Amino acid sequence: MGWHRELLIGFDLETTGTDPREARIVTGALVEVKGGEPIGRREWLADPGIPIPQEAVDVHGITNERATSEGRPADRVADELARALTGYWLEGVPVVAYNAAFDLTLLAAELQRHGLPSLRERLGGIGPAPVVDPYTIDRSVDRYRKGKRNLEAVCTEYGIALDAAHDATADALAAARVACAIAERHPKVAALGPAALHVKQIEWYAEWAADFQEFLRRKGDSGAVVESEWPVREILG
Question: Which pLDDT score, from 0 to 100, does residue 165 have?
Fold first, then answer.
């Protein structure tokens, strides 16, 4: 059948900012998807413990007032998300996250910030896997396609409806559906098992990072450094 027709877990976070080591979780969602259709979901609203900048509110629509009055403590949300995700990984179920290096690095930073066990510690010393990142896969299998590569643009490319962009649940579902659509269009992706696909994405992400870093340096930014770790970047601290 192929991994894309089996159970997948769509995962997305909406946050206070764009730096995954500094931003905080505002909302999170996990959506169970099979055959491209949702069969279950869990949602979280956090009080991030810091003011949500207006530019972030403009993106996801969660105000400071709502986060502080309705949101749960940030440490509990991070712990519950990590517990749920690692539960799926321990069962071998792929987690789908669009631009996984952002969401998983941010979650890892939140766990460290609150003194909670890391994803690796929860998984018995191994990194989170298998992860499916449509962003990374699409950049590799359709490298020369022009245009944006954000979730909205890639949904359009693959004919996936995204009615509420930057809603964590909608984005998590869309990410899983895009992953399925990529596998349907590219049989070589569908033919890989989740573990093999995970390894290929590590390679593809590193290749993209090296190419992009070289491009930036050719354009005059001699000190440009593009991080190459996927799906979780190193958290210093």
Answer: 77
Question: Is 227 part of a structural domain of the chain?
Answer: no
In sequence order, the β-bridge partners of residue 236 are: none
Report pLDDT for 235: 86
Residue 224 inside a domain? The answer is no
| Domains of the chain: total | 1
CATH value at residue 162: 3.30.420.10
Answer for the pair 148, 115: CB distance below 8 angstroms, yes or no. Answer: no
Range of the domain at 50: 3-218
pLDDT at position 196 is 98
Q: Rounded to two decimals, what is the model's pTM?
A: 0.96
Asked, for residue 178, whether it belongs to a domain, the answer is yes
Residue 114: CA count within 13 A, CB half-sphere: 21
The answer as to whether 230 is a domain residue is no
Q: Rounded to whole angstroms, what are the CA distances from 50 to 6, 71, 162?
A: 39, 12, 29
Q: In sequence order, which residues have a C-beta less than 8 Å from that of residue 12 and are 6 or more positions away? A: 28, 29, 97, 98, 103, 168, 169, 171, 172, 175
- Laid out side by side, the sheet with 37-47 consists of 72-73, 37-47, 25-34, 7-15, 95-96, 131-132
- Tens of pLDDT, residue by residue over 138-188, are 999 999 999 999 999 999 999 999 978 789 999 999 999 999 999 999 999
The pair of structure tokens assigned to 150 is 């954000």
Beta-carbon contacts of 201 under 8 Å, excluding residues fewer than 6 positions away, are: 131, 132, 133, 136, 137, 230, 231
